[in-house]
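User: Predict the complex.
Assistant: Input components as received:
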Amino acid sequence: MDLNFTSEEEAFRQKVRAFLEENVPRSGLSDTREGREDKEWLGRAKAWQRKLNEAGYVALAWPKEYGGQAMDPVRQSIVNDEMVRARAPYLIGGSGLGMLGPTLISWGTEEQKKRYLPKILTAEEIWCQGYSEPGSGSDLASLKTRAEIVGDEFIVNGQKVWTSGAQHADMMFCLVRTDPEAPKHRGISYILIAMHTPGITVRPLVQMTGDRGFNEVFFDNVHVPRKNLVAKLNEGWIVANATLFHERNMLGSASGSEQRFHRLLALAKTIERGGQPLTKDPVFRQRLVELEIKVQAMRLHALRQLTDQIRGKHPGIESMVNKLVGTELNHDLATAAMEAMGDDSMLAREDEKALDRGYWPYEWMFSLGLVIGGGTSHIQKNIIAERGLKMPKSR
Amino acid sequence: MDFGLSEEQQQLKDSARALLTHECPTTEVRKVMASDGYPRALYEQVAKLGWNGLIVPEQFGGAGLGMLEMAMLLEEGGYAAMPGPFLFSSAIATGALKLVRSSEPTGKWLKAIAEGKAIGTVAINDRTGSIDPRDLTTIATKNGEALRINGVKSNVPYAEIADFIVVVARDLSSPELWLGVVEKNAPGVTIKPRKNLDLTRRIASVELEGASAVRLPGEGLYAKLVDIGALAIAADSLGGMERALEMAVEYSKVREQFGKPIGSFQALKHAAAEIVSELEPARSLLWYAAYAFDAGLPDASRYIAMAKARLCDIYARGSDRAVLMHGGIGFTWEHDMHIWFKRARFNESYFGSPAFHRERVAALGGY
């Protein structure tokens, strides 16, 4: 056990830090996650990812032939930490970088990798995820969007829902039913759909935050080339789970939690209760420590998993907890901040008197969305119990 | 950056699991519970394997390893509900003696521990059930060259069979608490066994009436003793929780109700998954705390306090839920669940409550 980074890694960290200090956009792309609407915003967001990619700080572990640098996961983790530290804006191509890319690297054909991966890095193509449907949420495998094979094309009909970022996505990785007669898990295929194809309608949904972050997507006789199939026909469920694994690790990532905790602690120090800072209140103080302990445990837990990855160890039950714990923890942090603010927490982020620049009311709501997205906490617990502890299936 | 067990550490852990599975099954644990809480045959075996002297420096005949390696053994001891003084003697009392750089006055005891010829323990609490320095009232006075201790120490593990006791005391001239070694047969030492809940451990009161002691030289030793004790108990808790969970999960796969194994019901799945989701990150926390202690990092005390608070909370609450998952059978004396349920309670209160350690985390973090 040795938690020190090598001098090369430390030098790399300093280089990344210097680059970010110089280049992180200070206006127009907020560190709080805002509604992403207009074309101008989209252009700036893409430009930021392009800049970062040109500097060599995007998807460092991807193979060289697809635009990556084949670096070890430690470098990627250094970049992630530094991005959080610098409060760098989220990458607009996150779904492609964090979910589709790793899936294609494992499951895609050579042609698919060459065609799609480089444009994920440069933000030329933004991806969205076509998974949930109105009748298929937690029971994702019951999905009904149909793809019939006609000649060398799929003809897609149906509807997806809660599709984040569909309003500005160029491509969708999508689960479709290709064999309605087969048992539900064995009739699903994983296909890639260009969002400009005729027959696709994107209709925005307003989230509880007031933002238009996710959408309904309708498919009306949408033609998709058969070569856009990932893995084998009717074997999409396995691929879907590979993507979900990457998504859950992304959503449960510990790197943002530590910074959020420090922001909460700083807030609590500025709030007075009974003539002393809230951090001196014996009850709230204990609560803050409970949160910090969980935050630190998850930070160290991520380092342990990084080590396993370097050692080539297959992820086990310890990685199944990331999404559940990480998203619940982020929500708990925001909830504690709301309670700390007392009745000032009634102020929406737009109000000029909102504390801490209105960060917390939004974060409090947004973080609950992430407890749901990618499989709710209840579903995560089923997964941990069934796949991790081998408890009997209930369905 | 390498944050995982080394091959040697993993082997140490695996060999401990293998030994205790074979030599310390619950049938053996129960025999010890019904007698004096000290399985001598098992302790002869572990002595041969060098467990006693694992953290004793090599110059005194030990293996010279650190608390991270000790944590591997303690975790397995917790998993097996290993009875006896091992944790108190070979981890905590030994760790306290190791705080002294010179071989006086500690060398002879360290040597005897490594050889399996002596057992040590620690006496902290006075009457309040607290290890907060403000609550410790035992007094040491200097009488010529000799030190005399007066006070009543509560809940001292294995005082009856210990050869020496590390006693926490204060003199009236300074706020600093110091550690003194009292020999078992010294005049003025009276040991009164208590009846405790966790029968895999034995505790006693130690009455000190002018008992003579040798002071361990050094500054800030009490805080370091708290680190060592908290770390040891956290490691035991990790293993104990693992076992209690495993028992509940295995039971849920075979017990049927409503025509199905009860483990197919989400109520039980979620209870089990919640424990796992707390325990695995806490394991990472414990590893770091032990690593930081061994490396002498400035944040070691803070992370040890985090690990103690977190793992004891998880163990106390999780073993409670594990009993519940068993239903009526879990409430019987006949079923083994209560062994871990009671050890969890011992661990939660011994060497500082979770709330006490959380306050340390806050204070050390400048909240």
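The first helix of chain A runs from residue 7 to 23.
Let me know if you want any component modeled separately.
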